[in-house]
Design goal:
single chain, 182 residues, mainly alpha, 7 helices, 82% helix
């Protein structure tokens, strides 16, 4: 359910684009993201750092898109977000010995003690590479294909690739997980 909730602004962006244009869709995405943040705060009294980053990026890139009437900015926003995530994962792991993937998933997943450290390191690197790839792919689709194709990719392509990556990650992780005792 959280996955669909997180997709809410993208789905509304897609619908608004199909009904109107990219500028209307950008405004809708900005309003939806602000509404989403307010709802999360109302329900939980806490906003995750990732949600704050997403809010700031949509407001900054969305505002530039609207005020300069240039769709390039909203098309750059996913790449900025993906590359920010990628850089954060790599820099925090290499310079601060902080594995954010382990922090986010470690309480839900018990890995075998003999492979735990390297598995988390590989998983962190895989996510960093995935986000870097997604940012580059977004640029390619945004600037080599039509606006309509980019909007379709933003909802369906990005989401589909994320789901495939998560499934592959789960298959790979299953080899490193502790078996539940019966």
């Amino acid at each position: 359910m959280k996955f669909l909730f997180d997709l809410f602004p993208i789905i509304l962006f897609f619908i608004a684009f199909k009904v109107a244009d990219i500028y209307t869709a950008t405004i809708v995405a900005m309003v939806a993201t602000i509404g989403q943040i307010l709802w999360v705060y109302y329900r939980h009294r806490k906003i995750d750092a990732m949600q704050w980053v997403s809010l700031v990026l949509i407001v900054v890139f969305g505002s530039l898109t609207i005020f300069l009437h240039d769709k390039t900015f909203i098309q750059l926003k996913p790449t900025a977000l993906y590359w920010l995530f990628s850089g954060t994962l790599l820099i925090s792991a290499h310079f601060f010995q902080k594995n954010w993937i382990q922090v986010l998933m470690g309480k839900q997943i018990a890995l075998k003690p003999h492979s735990e450290k390297t598995a988390w390191q590989k998983l962190n690197a895989a996510w960093a590479l995935f986000f870097f790839f997604m940012g580059a792919l977004n640029l390619y689709v945004a600037f080599e294909y039509s606006e309509d194709t980019w909007v379709n990719f933003k909802l369906f392509g990005s989401t589909g690739l994320l789901i495939v990556f998560v499934i592959l990650q789960g298959v790979w992780l299953s080899k490193h997980m502790e078996q539940a005792s019966q």
